[in-house]
User: Which sequence fits this backbone?
């Protein structure tokens, strides 16, 4: 007759196998009403959704992997990934018992125009890149984010003009009154840029910058910038835009 220790060991092993094989719908069926996982597959520990809908935003090719080592720190750890022609992204999130979410090493790429990132004017294209080593959500709201955003190879199709690449570096990780602010600069293309961009969580933005044609840039670039008004002594034109995405 097997000992109690043997029976308990077999029962524990059976429980671990059952937990490891739990299908993904076991957890996706219990998501908040605003979050929908379409066509879930895999397991609770390593699964995927054909499309994850969060409110009005649809994120295709979504997958996750459970990080059991984070349980030693009394938190739930997940590695998240999006892989689709519309967006490529990956990050790690740590969820504490008070539901605070700490994010790590977020990287993302979105070709523009893109239905996921609205606000791009018709007839323009580029590549949006995001790098955020740290970000935090509290009570479901973004409270801090550190990193930068790059807009590469910004082009106007008619007439065809290449304006170059630009960077938005977040000045202060902590949001102030729900607003993210950072410095704008060019990355050495046909247009020189310097200034500041502020965005709030409702989608409104305030751009205050100045732009100038770089030496040797096309005449059409210089002509386009004159539409902003007369230049200052250094050749920069005021660029001020406010609106919403």
Assistant:
């Amino acid at each position: 007759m097997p000992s109690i220790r043997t029976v308990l060991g077999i029962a524990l092993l059976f429980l671990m196998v059952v937990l490891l094989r739990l299908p993904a719908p076991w957890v996706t069926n219990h998501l908040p009403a605003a979050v929908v996982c379409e066509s879930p597959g895999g397991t609770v520990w390593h699964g995927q959704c054909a499309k994850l809908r969060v409110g009005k935003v649809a994120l295709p090719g979504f997958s996750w992997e459970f990080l059991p080592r984070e349980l030693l720190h009394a938190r739930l750890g997940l590695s998240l990934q999006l892989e689709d022609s519309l967006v490529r992204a990956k990050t790690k999130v740590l969820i504490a018992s008070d539901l605070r979410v700490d994010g790590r090493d977020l990287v993302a790429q979105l070709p523009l125009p893109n239905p996921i990132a609205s606000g791009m004017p018709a007839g323009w294209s580029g590549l949006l890149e995001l790098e955020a080593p740290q970000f935090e959500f509290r009570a479901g709201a973004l409270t801090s984010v550190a990193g930068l955003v790059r807009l590469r190879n910004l082009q106007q199709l008619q007439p065809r003009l290449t304006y170059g690449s630009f960077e938005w570096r977040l000045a202060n990780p902590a949001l102030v009154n729900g607003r993210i602010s950072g410095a704008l600069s060019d990355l050495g293309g046909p247009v020189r840029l310097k200034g500041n961009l502020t965005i709030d969580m409702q989608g409104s933005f305030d751009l205050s910058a100045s732009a100038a044609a770089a030496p040797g840039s096309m005449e059409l670039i210089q002509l386009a910038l004159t539409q902003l008004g007369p230049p200052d002594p250094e050749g920069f034109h005021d660029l001020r835009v406010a609106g919403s995405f």
Q: What stands out?
A: The chain has three helices and 13 strands. Confidence is low (pLDDT under 50) at residues 6-20.
